[in-house]
Specification:
The chain is α/β, with parallel strands linked by helices. The protein has one domain: Rossmann fold, CATH 3.40.50.1000. It is 37% helix and 15% strand. It contains eight helices and eight strands. It has a six-stranded parallel beta sheet, sandwiched between helices. It has a two-stranded antiparallel ribbon with strand order 2-3. Helix 5 (120-123) links the parallel strand 6 and strand 7 (128-131). The longest helix is centred in the first third of the chain and has 12 residues, at 46-57. The chain is globular and about 50 Å long.
């Protein structure tokens, strides 16, 4: 399904207890900046970060699965209190299995957002598969939902809101902002 939201997809969101995210191309725009001194940097969207915090307030855990290792990812995860951080993850399906063994959850209770073909094995096994609007065509066709945003520009926030609204958490979370 592309950029529409069917009842069966909404039903899948009711069971979600963990949101796993790829980093490059999902939490970022996919660009990797490396200075002449070898320092890597990434740009993260603040709205995505706030969406992750809102999920946490609703009791939904978040984790990161990325093939690269970056201090920027470590620091961003610490800022957002993300404890499930897997870097240098070259076999995401194997890492996904480790997460299922580590947490008291089943695959249908996990949502995953990825953007490239390396994400397909996990996207095909989770309860809710999501992607960004500028992802690979093979990824889009394998997903339950495609964000209206490209990676790094609010796609994660859009997914967080979707989960929170489907589970009935949105209105109570908004009370602190609607004084």
């Amino acid at each position: 399904m592309k950029n529409s939201f069917a009842t069966d997809a909404a039903q899948k969101l009711l069971d979600i207890k963990v949101l796993l995210l790829d980093v490059d191309g999902v939490l970022t725009d996919g660009k990797i900046y490396i200075s002449s001194s070898g320092i890597e940097s990434k740009a993260f969207n603040v709205r995505d970060g706030h969406g992750i915090k809102l999920l946490s307030r609703a009791g939904i855990n978040c984790g990161l699965l990325t093939g690269r290792h970056s201090l920027a990812v470590t620091l961003r995860a610490q800022e957002l209190n993300i404890n499930l951080v897997y870097q240098r993850c070259h076999n995401k399906l194997s890492t996904f299995a480790k997460i299922l063994n580590r947490l008291p959850i089943e695959a249908h209770q996990v949502a995953y957002m990825g953007d490239d073909i390396v994400d397909l094995p996990v996207l095909k096994r989770v309860g809710f598969a999501a992607t960004v609007s500028d992802s690979a065509p093979e990824v889009q066709s394998a997903c339950d939902w495609v964000s209206s945003c490209p990676g790094g520009t609010g796609a994660v926030r859009e997914l967080c809101e979707l989960i929170l609204k489907a589970q009935g958490h949105w209105d109570s979370l908004m009370q602190r902002y609607l004084l």
